[in-house]
Each structure stands twice: as C-alpha cells, then as structure tokens.
TrEMBL record:
GO terms for cellular component: chromosome, centromeric region; nucleus. PROSITE patterns: POST_SET, PRE_SET, SAM_MT43_SUVAR39_2, SET, YDG. Its main location: nucleus. InterPro entries: H3-K9-MeTrfase_plant (IPR025794), H3K9_HMTase_SUVAR3-9 (IPR051357), Post-SET_dom (IPR003616), Pre-SET_dom (IPR007728), PUA-like_sf (IPR015947), SET_dom (IPR001214), SET_dom_sf (IPR046341), SRA-YDG_sf (IPR036987). Residues 6-153 form the YDG domain. Residues 292-439 form the SET domain. This is Histone-lysine N-methyltransferase H3 lysine-9 specific SUVH3-like. The lineage of its organism: Eukaryota, Viridiplantae, Streptophyta, Embryophyta, Tracheophyta. One of its GO terms (biological process) is methylation. It comes from Prunus yedoensis var. nudiflora. It comes from the Eukaryota. Pfam families: Pre-SET, SAD_SRA, SET. Residues 454-470 form the Post-SET domain. One of its GO terms (molecular function) is double-stranded DNA binding. Keywords: Centromere, Chromatin regulator, Chromosome, Methyltransferase, Nucleus, S-adenosyl-L-methionine, Transferase.
Amino acid sequence: MRKRIGVVPGVEIGDIFYFRMEMCAVGLHAPPMAGIDFMSGKGDAEKDPLALSIVSSGGYDDDTEDSDVLIYSGQGGYTHNNKQVADQKLERGNLALERSLNHGNEVRVIRGVKDEVISTTKVYVYDGLYKVHESWTERGKSGCNIFKYKLVRVPGQPGAFAVWQTIRKWKDGFSSRAGLVLQDLTSGTEPIPVSLVNEVDNEKGLASFTYFPKLKYSKSFTSMPPSFVCNCHNACLPGDMNCSCIQKNGGSFPYTSNGILVSRKQLLHECGPTCPCSPNCKNRVSQTGVKLRLEVFKTKDRGWGLQSWDSIRAGTFICEYAGEVIDEVKLKHKGDEGEDDEYIFDTGRNYDSFKWNYEPGLLEEETSNDINVDYNIPYRLIISAKNVGNVSRFINHSCSPNVFWQPVLYEHNNQSCLHIAFFAIRHIPPLTELTYDYGNSCSNEVDNDNGSHRKKKCLCGSSKCRGYFG
C-alpha cells in the first residue's frame, strides 16, 4: 500500500486496532514492529526522510498522560527486552522526526493503551495528526543518550485518546459521569452495572419495564426436542472431533480462548446446562451475561441508545436479546389492535445477508451476492421486550450497523431452545453507539400499516441508509 503523509482514506480518528498488522493493512502504520514509520524525500533517502506515523505503546520512556502533547522517545539502542545498552543515533526514524520538525509536516499518532476487558491485550488508538515542535537529547535511566521529540496535536480534531482518559477517570472514581441518572438500571441483575445517562434533556427515567437478563419461553410454546449433549468431562477443546458440540458446529470450535467469535454461523450450537463439561467451558459464551461496561444514554433524535465504556473487539459477545417469546398469532393481534410495540425482534423479517470477515472494499472488489450467507433457523422466533427485557431493548437500528445477531441453540430443561446473541461486526471504540439492522417485514405483512408492522423513518444517517425500517 502506498505510503502517504497525513490523513489515510477510510481511517477515522478514534479507530482502534488490536493487532499492529491491522494498521499495516489499512496503510496507517507500515512497520509491524518499529515505532516510527517514514518515507524518503526527493533527495537522498538517508538525508531526507520524513516521519509519517509513530506508535507510542509505553515500551520506552514516553510521557503519554497529556491528551494533546506527546513526549516521544527515539528508537534504537535497546535490546529485545527493552533494556537500553547504547546511545541512540540520528538515523532512520529518529532522523525522519528531526526532518519533520524542520519541514513542519503532519505525523499520524497511534497510542497503545491497556485493554480493560482482557488485561493481557493492548489496544491501539488512532489519535489523529500531530506536528513535531521540539527535539533534544537526554540521558536515560541506563545512562545512555536518548532522542526526545515533543509532538503537539493539530487543533480542531475530534477527541480520541482524550476519551479513553476520561473513561479511566470515571472508572477510577476521580470524576463523575456528566448527566448520570442511575448508577445501575439493572439493580444488580447483571454482573457489571449498566448506567443510565441523559445529557440531552430533562428526562430522568425510562418507561416502566421489568429487567430480566434471559429469554422467557411460555409454557405453551413448543420448542425443539433435546439434542445430544456433549461427552466432554473437563472442557470442550478445539479439534476434538469426539465432541458432539464441535461436530454440530461443522467440525470447528466457534470461539477463541478469550471468547471471541471467530466465524459467523448459520446456526451456532453451544453447550447447555446438562452437558457434563465444566461450567467455564469456552463453548458457553452467550450464557455468561454482560461482561462489558455498558451505558444506556439519551440520543439527540432516536430516544435511548446503548454504548460501552470499554472498547469492543470484533467478534465479542455483547448481550442476548432478552424478553418474552410470543407466537405469530399474538404478534398479529398486536398489529390488529394498533399496539405500538417497538421492542419486537422477529427472525421472520427480511435481513440483509453478509459474509463474516469479508470486506470487498479493502480488496478492491465489487460486492457480490454470491458471498452472502443466510441463517439456518429451526423455527421462527419472535421476542417482545416491551414489558420484560434487558439492555438489548435499547440497541437502535442502523442500515450500516456495528453489531449483528447470531442464532444460538442450546439445551435447557430437556428442550433445545433458540436464543439471539449480539456480537460486534468490527472493532468498536468506547462511547460509540451500538446498532444492528432491524430488517424489514415480509411481503405478506407490509400491507399492515398498524402497530408492530408499521414502517418507520430511519434516522441512522448512514450513506447506505434505506430511508426506513420495520
């Protein structure tokens, strides 16, 4: 990919990356290891390099606390275990930063921060464009000389690293969340509190509903007969073809050891409560409850929405769509009576298909319908979260969503029950609204202009907006 100074098309300030190779792939920062990316000028490559981007990941003695100023340490003189053994030299990346100081060109800055969800993971945050304002040398802790560069953020850019710092203060209790209405709207039902925030108007509460974290099947609802439980006695392991759960998932294990969904399935089979494997088996991801620090917040024009204080890696489980399972007769009755139930999830709607982990734009290919994968659902599932539900009832619609729904089947009470789990389509930065595609009613239902089948004007603002949903 061609190197360039300044803005990289398609990369937004605040975008996050979990692997340095991701930054290489999009052209944000080319070196897979080095902290300074540079390119040659028109003259001699050794005399006229210019810095393009830097990664400040805390490996050296960088001052990273200021959200608009970064004191960056040069490269070189270190062993593989980050021990400095020699003076740094004014060459390569160090020389490029020095030339950028004289030239005044913009330098992209990526900040490495600790992942709050998985402590062993680092997240790279694109913090926008900076300029080198000053350079000097000083002696490091080992007594060797280090080049230092002062970079100042170009004014007028949206916050990125500053957002992470603000959230850290909220979590550490050093400052309070503006507009906080409730500390935990779940009243302790979820393992992690879900706050309610309104910075838009004076509304101080939600319409009455009962918070319940699971799906409620009525006694009259006929589900599938129980499927075979797995025969693993410790934990289901990838590659164990004797495990019936892995067999039902097409021979592959659906999750990583950290619980990241690695492949979207037409139907995902998880271990149920009666499987003999241990309760912490990695094939029970959607049954473990909310693990993210979520927040219900008031939007400017679409009611209440849902966002996260934590960054969310692509494939991360967010929550289940909880509520009361209803049948088609009751759904039709709601429409006939003109009841406006905005909290209906219906697998019978028409949804845009997509292929997991495939971005034709990055590959400079045209989108083809041949790559789409449709769901394989054993029966139509209709859920109403109007009176009973969880945080999922606050996820708004978007024609370009960052969350998708995945049908999950597992055994419970001697029956195989279908559930709807939400996973992240892509990496999602903190305080980004979570959205999924609500789909559209089937052709035989669109004539009903009342209640739950009424089409609604879409306000998602996406360039791919269909103009309506429902």
